[in-house]
Write a structure and sequence with these properties.
The complex is a heterodimer of chains A (394) and B (325).
Chain A: E1 28-29, H1 49-74, H2 88-96, E2 103-105, H3 111-117, H4 121-128, H5 162-175, E3 182-187, H6 194-205, E4 210-216, E5 219-220, E6 223-224, H7 235-240, E7 244-249, H8 253-270, E8 274-279, H9 298-305, H10 309-320, H11 325-346, H12 367-382
Parallel strand pairs in A: 1-7, 2-3, 3-4, 4-8, 7-8
Antiparallel strand pairs in A: 5-6
Helix pairs in contact in A: 1-2, 1-3, 1-10, 1-11, 2-3, 2-8, 4-11, 5-6
Chain B: E1 2-5, H1 6-20, E2 24-28, H2 44-48, E3 53-55, H3 60-73, E4 76-80, H4 91-98, H5 101-104, E5 115-120, H6 135-139, E6 145-147, H7 152-164, E7 169-174, E8 182-185, E9 198-201, E10 206-210, H8 214-227, E11 232-236, E12 239-241, H9 245-255, E13 258-265, H10 270-282, E14 291-295, H11 305-308, H12 312-323
Classes of the chains: A alpha/beta (394), B alpha/beta (325).
Amino acid sequence: MKDRNHLSNVGLSHEVQIIKNGILDIPMLQLLQADGKPHDGAVLPSLDQETVQKIYDTMQYIRVLDERMIAAQRQGRISFYLACTGEEASTIGSAAALKPQDMIMSQYREQGALAYRGYSTEQFMNQMFSNELEPNKGRQMPIHYGAKELNFMTISSPLGTQIPQASGYAYGQKMAGEEAITICYFGEGAASEGDFHAGLNMAAVLNCPVVFFCRNNGYAISTPAEEQFAGDGIASRGLGYGVKTIRVDGNDVMAVYAATEQARKIALEENCPVLIEAMTYRLAAHSTSDDPTGYRSKDEEEKWRAKDPILRLEAWMEAKGWLDAEANKQYVEKTRQEVLQELKRVEQVPICVVDEIVEDVYDTPPWHLRKQLKDLKEHIAKYPEAYPKTSGRL
Amino acid sequence: MVKMNLLQAINDALISMMTQDERVMVFGEDVGHFGGVFRATSNLQEKFGKARCFNTPLTEQGIIGFANGLASQGSIPVAEIQFGDYIFPAFDQIVNETSKFRYRSGGQFSCGTLTIRTPYGGGIAGGHYHSQSPEAFFAHIPGMKIVIPRNPFQAKGLLLASIKDDNPVLFMEPKRLYRASVGEVPEEDYELPLGKAEVTAKGSDITLLAWGAQMEIIEKAAEMAALDGISCELIDLRSILPWDAETVCESVMKTGRLLINHEAPLTGGFASEVAATVQENCFLHLESPIARVCGLDTPYPLSHEKEYMPDHLKTYEAIKRTVNF
């Protein structure tokens, strides 16, 4: 057995020293200024025009989707929606820096990452209408996406549970010898959950190739960051767990891409976790059930609207000569039409037959579930009008 | 056949699974080089390396969260929670994640390969926090399987089946039997069925149902009752979820009487579920009310452990009351 000394790295002090917040300044990586001009000396990631266009288009796509789906919810066509307005650079810029084989474990505001992976409008609609074509079989609320073929883990509502899971998933990828990492998204509010601490600590101790991506968007529903934690954001915690950490301007898509690209490389090559804290702002309400006017001012929102990540990228593209305003206008219009069309069409698709209610609880339904289903179907047959969505297909 | 205690049988099953499939990984607090506080994971790290058998930080929610991720990736995690009493920080991961992974994703992802091992139960002077029997909490979670062995032979066969089963299993080990229970165990692999109870003794006057370490208690009570001319049929439930109502009901329809014994507190214990189902299915066959001999509705006490436990004497008295109703 080897001798250990847990004090071997501890330095000495001969006066009472109180270590305070702020001793360690964790700067925020910013490559593009608010007007889209690169900072002097900033090294931008080497992205070709096609990739930049894809990032830009996905940002536009998501903005259209968010806008249309909020409207659909207001019209009573879907029960719930959750927009990511203002955070598109964080989720799309980071997703763009990954490889398709990397697993994405998201919180719930990362539809941008999913769209970047290729999730189609039809798939978005199927999920939000909980219909029989949806791979999750309509069992969860709108926006709880999951797509195995895109390596996008099905979302669950409890906050932070995906964080230690991401550590475990990444450990499995490493053990299987895959050239892949796991990225785990969460908000600064979710980072108060015990699972955050458990997940980061385990990933650090067990050398898991996982990138923890915190979207610090200033609010957890109505609770502002200042009432969420007293320390220096989430980044400072990474250092406490021995996790390599980077803080980045979440509204600067170039900075987000550069940070994530580097984090992925470190995670994979060094078999270790990396924490990214993206500083951004949730311009959207928490969800369609929320009204931000009750807890923040219009002025505050306006200040952040001016930092719109899409405008910043647009300005950079324009300076580069990569912006085709006309084509962009057409793309946005086409997307609007597509969303409306799919929404209308998918609305008509039925939900799963009632037999699905007992499937996937176990690998096969045990006796008690089979019995409960049989009783249920007999009951529905007796009162078909009360259960119109399933009674016609018993 | 080899003589083994319950711990050795568990260790044997783990070695077998880790040998057969390199995706099997065993982890938890102190399970690495030390081999676990009860030594259930002895020598696994030496045999299979630190990457496949390792210590985790002291975080039950982290252990199960990590295990959920690992299982969903396709590995076969066998996670240890050092004491059943300390499983509650992981309750959210088990209730909201482990058990719902498959359902919520429409079968795209699942934690089916996960097995959670944890010692439970009293009788070892463990007080509040080293004695509880929390099976009923988990019996309320659709998607979980709960398995409890009563001896070394059962432990090996049920653990092998649990690890191979494509559903998450909570495998609860009666810790007071770890070294006390010794028996013949086949060297080769064998699986015992999950979700299937076992009639361990035939009888005609009353059915006694228990699981885990309480099987010894009802056996002892049945011996006492036999001297009074009462013939007891004994059933080891073995799986709490899904549970084998068919075997239990068949027996009750024959004997007309049922007594259920468990260490956990009476109120909301799994005996309540069994009693409700049995009265529903066997109403016209019942000759007396269903008896429950359980722990008191108190925290598990230390100095009054003997008084708290649903022992053979309390069981014997309840048998007589039920038969003479």
